[in-house]
Design brief:
By secondary structure, the protein is α/β, with parallel strands linked by helices. The protein starts with a helix and ends in a 7-residue tail after the last strand. The N terminus is likely disordered.
């Protein structure tokens, strides 16, 4: 027969575990205030937000197993979750993000993404969430600016506010996000220049700022971002020349600078770097000749230099490239014979059209 003392100890221990795993009344109130500021009419995900324990079966809410504090809010409007499959539609939500969310001071993940119609501003108090590692608000109608002191979030690894209507300048403090690995501010209404010391973001691997209204030049400090693999500054109003250091970055493989007002000559390092796989410099004002620096290690899935003011010949060294998937040199002022070789065998006339006097396969015979 079990000891009465052992039985009592077991009951106390079970009660303690139950208490730890249940969210506090304060955090429950914050979540309900967050819910009250939003309207989700089709899927009914907020109908699960009932009962005393917000750590148990509240859709998208997770708690720390040890402390019972709310650690994650993960609400995605594009999901393969059975709720979405049963409804046969993607998510739609209106309203705004309540500042009450900032009272969840153990939050590490805040994802409220792809709901299409959530508006209002990013609550400035979001920068008080010192444990936050992931902030993903992409695919809504959020407006206003990025909080000026965003750099306080020292543990942030992902900042994604793409596909909104966010305006204003990129905060200078953003360079203080020393843990950041993924930055996506694309398809917003950001203006002004890139911070000159943006290269301080030493951990970033993806830096996506396309389709904004950014001006000024590309800071040379970008070249010091040694872990950067994907840089997209396309669809802005950037001017000046491209820093030659971009072609010497150790892991940069995707560089999209198309649809800007960049000028000067194309740095030869961009074309000679064997790690560069996608390079799009189209729809700018680049001048001079195309550097003749390709080699047997050159492997481009896509190389687009169209709609510039390039002159001279198509580089003969292109024929020695290991692979050229998509090549577009159209709408320039190139002249002379198109080189022969395996990289050119599959290309169509559109790759070379609208130049001054190019000839040879796949264009007319010279």
């Amino acid at each position: 027969m079990a000891s009465p003392l052992l039985f009592i100890a077991t009951v106390i221990l079970a009660a303690g575990i139950s208490t730890v795993n249940a969210c506090s009344a304060t955090e429950k109130a914050s979540l309900l205030a967050f819910k009250a500021a939003l309207s989700e009419p089709y899927l009914g995900i907020f109908k699960t937000w009932s009962g005393d324990n917000c750590c148990l079966n509240w859709y998208g809410v997770s708690c720390d197993a040890t402390t019972g504090r709310v650690s994650d809010i993960n609400l995605r409007g594009e999901s393969e979750d059975p709720i979405f499959e049963k409804a046969g539609r993607s998510g739609y939500m209106t309203g705004k993000i309540s500042p009450e969310i900032c009272k969840l001071d153990h939050l590490t993940t805040l994802v409220v993404a792809d709901w299409k119609a959530i508006s209002g501003e990013i609550p400035p108090c979001i920068t008080s969430l010192s444990n936050l590692r992931i902030l993903d608000l992409t695919g809504n109608r959020i407006s206003g600016g990025i909080p000026a002191d965003i750099g306080k979030l020292q543990r942030l690894t992902v900042l994604n506010v793409a596909d909104n209507t966010i305006s204003g300048k990129i905060p200078a403090s953003i360079v203080n996000l020393e843990s950041l690995k993924h930055l996506d501010l694309s398809n917003n209404r950001l203006t002004g220049q890139l911070p000159s010391d943006i290269g301080k973001l030493a951990m970033v691997s993806r830096f996506l700022l396309s389709r904004n209204q950014l001006t000024g030049s590309i800071p040379s400090s970008v070249a010091s971002m040694s872990r950067l693999a994907d840089l997209d500054l396309s669809g802005n109003q950037l001017s000046g020349s491209v820093p030659s250091g971009l072609g010497q970055m150790p892991v940069l493989s995707i560089l999209n600078l198309d649809d800007n007002s960049l000028s000067g000559q194309i740095p030869s390092s961009l074309l000679s770097n064997p790690g560069m796989g996608i390079l799009n410099l189209s729809r700018n004002g680049f001048e001079g000749t195309i550097p003749d620096v390709f080699c047997s290690k050159s492997y481009f899935m896509a190389l687009d230099l169209s709609y510039n003011n390039l002159k001279g010949r198509v580089p003969a060294s292109l024929s020695s490239a290991k692979y050229i998937g998509h090549l577009d040199l159209s709408h320039n002022h190139l002249c002379g014979t198109i080189p022969m070789g395996s990289p050119f065998d599959h290309l169509e006339a559109s790759s070379f059209s609208n130049n001054d006097c190019l000839c040879g396969n796949p264009l007319k015979t010279c």
